[in-house]
Hints:
With 402 residues, this protein is an alpha/beta fold. The chain has helices at 31-43, 54-74, 88-103, 122-131, 148-154, 177-186, 206-209, 234-239, 274-290, 292-310, 338-346, 360-366, 382-400; strands at residues 12-13, 16-17, 19-20, 82-85, 109-113, 134-138, 159-165, 190-194, 213-217, 228-232, 250-253, 258-260, 316-318, 328-333, 350-351, 353-355, 371-375.
Amino acid sequence: MKRDDFDILKEKVYGRELVYLDNAATTQKPRQVIDAMVYAYTHFNSNIHRGVHHLSQVATMKHEEARQRVADFINARSKDEIVFTKGTTDSLNMLAFSAGELLVKEGDEIVVSAMEHHSNIVPWQMMCERKGAKLRVIPLREDLTLDMAAYKEMLNEKTRLVSVAQVSNVLGIVNPVEEIVRAAHERGALVAIDAAQSAAHIRIDVQETDCDFMAFSAHKMYGPTGLGVLYGKREWLEKLPPAEGGGEMIEHVSFEKTTYNTLPYKFEAGTPDFIGSYVFGKALEYIENAGRDEIEAHEQELTAYAEERLREIAGMKIYAEGQRKAGVISFNIGDIHPYDTGMLLDRQGVAVRTGHHCAEPLITHLGVPGTVRLSVALYNNKEDIDKLIEALKRAVQIIQSA
Ligand code: 7TS
């Protein structure tokens, strides 16, 4: 599927053809996206929203068109609900700060899950510390899925906000976000969804999910680095105070009093990445042209194939085996250290990730030093998986004969 659009996949690593299976960390960019960046700098680079001159107006229009495209992509009601940020981490930090200021007082509770990325733990922890609130954690069941009964029991009148990943970046598990949202809303709590690992892989729809906030990163979606999105329902974004002050986010400034701009500009202090937003728009167009359902079906087939082939290897432990997954598989082989596996794969041109994947509490729960993680994107194929398996078998041989 569309492999030829990604020139980087023709790169050689140690003289071998690159097999790129680290897409959960960042995806590669198709030529159309790379060209869009050159096009933007060549034809309409100019600071947005402030100029009466032609270039500034073109740049502003492109930036706002990209915002509309993002809104359409996640089915937001309005582009005013789309705030451009630096990435998922930035979005969650902004949200934790603003929501903390508006909603949280001493003794209140914030809920996250035991499978979160550090980006969806630490900002909430910092906010809890500031506000004297308590962080509560949804435990995992034996099969590593969320313990939904424990979650529902945890919700109470002190719960202000629940923040969970739609897809775990370690396990690939797809969490039941609609059920999570429904239960939280019944108790009057808000819900934020960390969509960093879902946005490019499964269909996301903020109206269907009914989440109050959502965060994701462009660089994991065939788009540029340094850009992300914080979606928020209008009613909440209107109420939340801005996390940062500066240009663009104001209506009027005087030394006595400053009033804030309308949505979404209230949350976009300073010059936004208007080149990045345009390029991200092109990445979303690329995903839509490839077909979101087709991408999902292709990646499902690949991960099912990968699980099946991984089982050929003696001592293979696949985490959350057989669960519905979106593009990510974590495993270990016997007591071989994941770093050793990863290093030997790298020498054979296969890029996977090893370690705690910025989800240390989950790795501690698994009781291992880390995992080996493969993660696929639309351009991967069965041949990549076959090469991984071959390289894994060779790695095991090398380690066992050492
Ligand atoms: N949330 C999840 C679920 C993630 O997987 C990541 C990044 C983030 C938040 C943070 O995104 P950022 O773009 O702000 O950095 N995950 C990974 C990963 O699994 N390997 O490298 C980055």
